[in-house]
Amino acid sequence: MKVLFIGSRLYDDLDWYVKSKDIESILTESNEEAINLDLPNQVFIVPRGMDGPKQVALMHKVDAIVPLIGIDPPLIDIAHMKEEVETEYGIPVVAAGVRAVELTSDKIKTKRFYEEIDVATPNYQILHSPDELALEFPVVLKQGEGQGGKDIKVAKYIDEVEGYFNEFDEALCEEFIEGAEISVEVLGFNGEFVALPPIYKGETTLEGTHPLNKIKSGPCMVEGLDNNLVQHTAYKIARNLDSDGIFEMDFMYSRKNNQLYAIEVNTRPNGTRYLTTATCGVNSLCELVNMAIGEFSLANISNKLQYYYSAEIPVGNYQGPKPNEPIKSFEHNDFVVHGPEGYQRVTARANSKEELDELVDKLT
Ligand SMILES: Nc1ncnc2c1ncn2[C@@H]1O[C@H](COP(=O)(O)OP(=O)(O)O)[C@@H](O)[C@H]1O
Ligand SMILES: [Mg+2]
Fold first, then answer.
1. Spatial CA neighbour of 282 closest among 268, 302, 309
2. Same domain, yes or no: 202 and 290
3. Taking a C-beta distance cutoff of 8 angstroms, is the pair 174, 123 a contact?
4. CA angle at residue 312 from 184 to 114, to 5 degrees?
5. Are residues 329 and 294 in the same domain?
6. pLDDT (tens digit, 9 = 90+) per residue, 70-98?
7. Which residues make beta-bridge pairs with 172?
8. What is the pTM assigned to this prediction?
9. pLDDT digits over 239-256, tens only?
10. pLDDT per residue over 189-213, tens digit each?
11. What is the dihedral angle through the alpha carbons of 212, 363, 17, 89, rounded to the nearest 10 degrees?
């Protein structure tokens, strides 16, 4: 099997798996200074965009293409390339298609999509000026596009809404949900979908603190919230998006209203994956490879499922004990260190909460 990977930044997370499967790896990257270029069998530096990867795929007659892009802007180009390469050349591209990317890359379209498929989402209005505001404070102001909390503001007073409108002409304005933040990874391929265990990402705050900066844990254990409901809702959203690859879905749970709300979907590798793997043993990046080589199935996922307590802690610069090889995997480790220097995080897992606390103490 010969597989083309697009983008090197995440490649060290799955290099060990690609090697264990005896896959011939080809990788395209647009930045010749990028990390991990020494890992695949062959590397091609190509201009930005999807023309270069497509040419390399055709020239080298690869069996499948796996984009490893962890940011939003290129997703639509990848989706168009997928549709062309799959219909014209019959090469599977393990990524979301055009409709799924269009629906999920714009938070306003995502809200309308939730309404169409009857999934609860926080009340909202599209504001063109502060005096149109009809929701009660606090409200959350967002732009259609963005990730990592970019352009998001929790407003408690009208002057904060006015301040936001000094910068933007339009805002998606949502009621503020006080409660737990939850993420779920869903894997999908050829019409089969599986929702992995929900991860708890902390409580919402009036400062709008992004989950990137909080302690997270798995499996999600929030009183009053049934994880089956979260998984079922995630499954329903994925089935209606009807596409391939990884879907990371964000939810909030209000204890006061006993209501689960859907917030957004990311159709790409994402930051929840280390905790998902720690918690249940399924690694979403490795599953992308399995989709590419025809080894993805619900039965295979069920056979892999494990049950651990896990936590992820921001540590800045990790100084604890050295992990075993392969270092970016839980194969021979009970912890994984990831993220750029200064912003590193450690994800750890154990058989009980007590053992997890001890392990976390040792690592941080
Ligand atoms: N309706 C809301 N109520 C409370 N907090 C919210 C709400 N919407 C967003 N937030 C906070 O802002 C963060 C980022 O919002 P999100 O819509 O997921 O955008 P991003 O794409 O930047 O992750 C959320 O994880 C949460 O902490
Ligand atoms: Mg988010």
1. 302
2. yes
3. yes
4. 20
5. no
6. 999 999 999 999 999 999 999 999 999 99
7. 126, 142
8. 0.96
9. 999 999 999 999 999 999
10. 999 999 999 999 999 999 988 887 7
11. 10
CATH value at residue 91: 3.40.50.720
Q: Which domain holds residue 300?
A: 178-307
Say whether both 197 and 286 belong to one domain: yes
Residue 118 belongs to some domain of the structure: no
Angle formed by the axes of helices 75-89 and 51-59, nearest 10°: 30
Sheet holding 64-67, edge to edge: 42-45, 24-29, 2-6, 64-67
**CB-based burial of residue 183 (10 Å sphere; 0-12 exposed, 13-18 middle, 19+ buried)?**
buried
Assigned token pair, 202 = 């902390």
Name the residue among 197, 235, 232 with its Cα closest to residue 217.
Answer: 197
Q: Mapping DSSP to helix (H, G, I), strand (E, B) and coil, where does residue 93 land?
A: strand
Q: Is 210 in the pocket of ligand 1 (CB under 6 A)?
A: yes
**From the CB of 28, is ligand 1 less than 6 Å away?**
no
Residue 64 CB contacts under 8 Å (≥ 6 apart), including other chains: 1, 3, 4, 91, 92, 93, 94, 291, 292, 293
**Which of 114, 140, 184, 213 to probe ligand 1 with, by most ligand atoms within 8 A of CB?**
140
Phi, psi values for residue 111, rounded to 5°: -60, -45
Tell how far the Cα of 209 is from the centroid of ligand 2, in angstroms: 11
DSSP 303-339: HH----EEEEEEEES--SPPPPSSTTSSSS-SEEEES
